[in-house]
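Lab notebook, bench 4. Still working through the backlog of constructs that have no structural model yet. Next entry is a single chain of 293 residues. Request: give me the structure tokens for it.
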Amino acid sequence: QDAALGRLAQLEAVDAVSLQLLEQRQPAEVLQRTLRLLMPMVGATGGGYWRYHADQQFLELTQVEGTLQELLGLTQTADEGIISGIIQSGQTRLVSDNQTFEHQPRLPTESRSVMLTPLTSDDRVIGVLTLTHTSPNAFTNADVETTKRFAALASIALENARLLEGMRKAQASASDRNALLETLHGVNLELGSYVRLGPLLLSILERAMMMLGGHDGRLYLLDESGQSLSLAAHIGGQAIQRIQLGEDVSGQTALTGLAMMLPDYQDWSGRFPDTPLRRWRSVISVPLKRGSQ
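Model written out:
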């Protein structure tokens, strides 16, 4: 009877906190709240969440509480230890004493009792909830059922939070897109008022730098020979006056007719070996075309 009453009390506690869990709006908040609400219910001294990266087949400990805090950021392959079986089976696993268990999870030595429960989305395991205790045989069957129920709630709350996050990003992207279109419309009106080439090219460069947040800018025009480019406008720093077709990032862009984006210009093998552009890092280069040329 005492066990039944204790079980009933746990279920009532889960129902009482379920709304708190579902109200969270960020995935990290859902996971943190899950651990902080669940751990006292089952008497756990440590808790964590292993995020499963299915595309790269590894797990990362992205959320920790209590005695597991020192392990934040720990990674392991998806086929390593007991967690691999949970990912494949989607079933909760209880380890009575981690120190005598053959396939020990990567946890501190003081973690004796361990409970591992999967979180799912569309019947796919997306992560594993881990609860630990410093004593062996600390978790009961009732604790396992409570954790399973919490994991189901957390899976729903996590999916809701991710959907909301996706909607916010889509709205922000649409807002940025509208702002970009308005800016481009203003640029078109302004550029149409120029009658001389020099000021027109400088204005194009200024506008592009403002929109992209650039520090330096160069605009090159292809010579009549079609074999080299001459500097037509530049803003910031030193500038190379003439570039051969295929040379450096501007010459490559002119040669291929394709835009280029370099995460780090200094690591790019095609840069000038002895160049005044030593402070360049992120670089984007796009061709100016007339018709198909």
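Notes after review: The radius of gyration is 29 Å. Residues 88 and 104 are 17 Å apart (CA to CA). Flag for follow-up if needed.
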